[in-house]
Amino acid sequence: MKEAGKILSYTVSENKIRVQYENQLAEITVLREDIVNVFVPCWSPEHYSKAIEGEKAVPTVFSSVMQDGNIMIETARLKVCIGDNLRIEFAKVDGTPLMKTCSGGRKFDGEVSEQIRQILESEGHDTSNMGARHYSVELVAEMDPCDDFYGLGDKSGFLNKKNYEYENWNSDIPQAHNEDYRALYKSIPFLICKKKKGAYGLFFDNTFHSYLNLGKENPQYFYYGADNGNLDFYFLGGDTIVELVQEYTYLTGTTPLPQLWTLGYQQSRWGYENAGQIREVACKYRELDIPCDVIHFDIDYMDGYRVFTWNEKDFGEPGELFTELGQQGYKAVTIIDPGTKVDEGYFMYDEGKKNGYFATDAQGEIYANEVWPGESNYPDFGRKEVRDWWGEHHRFLVEIGAAGIWNDMNEPASFRGELPEDVVFHDGERQTNHAEMHNVYGHYMSKATFDGLRMISDKRPFVITRACYAGTQKYSTVWTGDNQSLWSHLQMLVPQLCNLGMSGFAFCGTDVGGFGADVTPELLTRWVEAACFSPLFRNHSSKGSKRQEPWLFGNEVVNIYRKYVKLRYQFLPYLYDLFYQGEKTGLPVMRPLVLHYEDDPETHNLNGEFLVGENLLVAPVLEQGATQKMVYLPEGDWYDYWTGEKKSGSQYILRDAPLDMCPIYMKAGSMIPTYDVINYVGEKPYDTLYMLATPGAASYEHFQDNGEDYSYREGVYNLYAFSKGADEKLETKMIHENYKKYDRIVLRRIDK
Ligand code: GLC
After folding, report:
1. Is 466 in the pocket of ligand 1 (CB under 6 A)?
2. Does residue 222's CB lie within 6 angstroms of at least one atom of ligand 1?
3. Catalytic residue chosen out of the listed positions 74, 205, 411, 529
4. In principle, which of 120, 153, 503, 538 could form an S-S bond with 125, CB 3.0–4.6 Å?
5. Cβ(529) to ligand 1 under 6 A?
6. Region 300-329: what's the mean pLDDT?
7. 299 CA to middle of ligand 1, Å?
8. What are the pLDDT digits (tens) for 617-659?
9. What per-residue confidence (pLDDT) applies to 712?
């Protein structure tokens, strides 16, 4: 990035401070007393944000003065110092330093000459990571030895991102997602930095290929770089990590309350090739008394992988199978890929071509690449009329009974090499290219799907996407793509879903059992134990891999599988409450311990356990052959869910964990709502609520509504305030009452 030079002058107008440097302009916007945007228009004078919708700035009192050549800005919570050459420092108003740009820029060794690079490459070495690379957009900030990093969406590896490097470039990765993978399917450039004292967040709102190096290049700094676009970042200055997540989701949106059945267990497989196979699976779950709400339809249900068509030969009349499954209590979710088959006479191709809805090459010819249907075109989802067209076509699936849509291959995937950067896409009316729109292709496809479903049905849309950008949580849930039946992938479940949660995606999950490769009975068992509290709970596997339904692995597996799926159904009202609160606060369902216990350094690198809300701690066994689990209990007392035994926190304990045991603890002084187990949501009305409680004082707010539509936003719901004192009597107060109440509310003590 070119040197900005010295500050020549600055002006203040409303909430913006415009700083004129010798070679550059910078604009500092005070959005709230805790959120400040820094915008250096090195590419365009506009922000062109795809993540943030609507005006987020609120009237905020702040001061700005020039002092010793620096511009000093102060809000009620933050101090910002802007100096020459874009030197920026953020501190809390009490002076506690937060972020400070690095005065010397980057310093690294290991420069590789072009000649050496070519030799190494000819020997098959990957040199992309060797030596220096400067970016057209760059921000380098000081790093203290104690700094820890979180967020960044679905990146592989561990919870704490310190000392690793990542890229934001949505990538379809069929290989095992080891910790050295820098980019997976999603680009969520939101970084949380936990300092010894205090924490801050940075959201880099730039959709071009970008890079984050968190002390790997040099432990004295971390840097952000991008190939193009503006330096456009939001500094979030909360007092806690919880507050940072709230601030970030204030900007990019929270995960909306889903329908209750979407929290049920779901079965999928790429390779259910006909209606008969689906019927068998559906019947078997009921026969074995394992609850299940959803059957997913992968690409086989389409006619020749043409989107919005139906394969009648193998799946019968459209609608027939969905009706039959509906009678057994199942919902159907169908996959829709963006790649539209090049095929004269196929309505999607004809309409898209006639109306100019597909992306073109730089010469204006419709661009084609290969995906499942063969030669395919790519809808230009950045344009509203293309989204409306695409959204409207979901009517066919909704009318035959599909209850949700699964969006896949939307990085976008392309089997014949990546789309060239100059393929023409649009951002609204503005013409641009693949380099800018790649990372938001899945974002806009999800928006098209969400808006389409919203228009066609009065139910809350259920969309699942593989690729996305910051802010996609407003439209879609996510799964972590093509994982594999490997212990390392099971281990990654905890950090990956926790970081997705802290990056705004409260509704996320992994393919239970692993998508690729063959699962073992033990791995499948441990996976269902670990995933039974993950927000999206779906067993999915790949064509060509061993089938993964629990009954194929013998009685022991079936019994344990049933135990954990049933446990999930018991806890449905707790998960639903967390989503209800999350829609308002932005906080996730599945949380790393560092989110609530950030002052305890022991929590900063915990990869093998997580919290569900604040009240439950889940510590699944994630290692082959292990029959004990080392569990860290944070401060306070904790009750063993299975035995009711009380344990003191701030210590590690060794818990017996034979194959059927996933250690779970409940926080002292808490209550959790539970339901009777049923086969699927809606089988029977939930007329009894059981409040599971630890001894002594506790309180809890519980939400109840029809679990399906938006009437709760018009006040059609109940909100209960439960409390219990030392007398162990449960008190119920109605905070809001406008829905059929439970017939019975029963108190259950965890220790009895
Ligand atoms: C992709 C998806 C996977 C799906 C397959 C076939 O690999 O990630 O979930 O089963 O395509 O549609």
Report:
1. yes
2. no
3. 411
4. 120
5. no
6. 98
7. 8
8. 999 999 999 999 999 999 999 999 999 999 999 999 999 999 9
9. 98
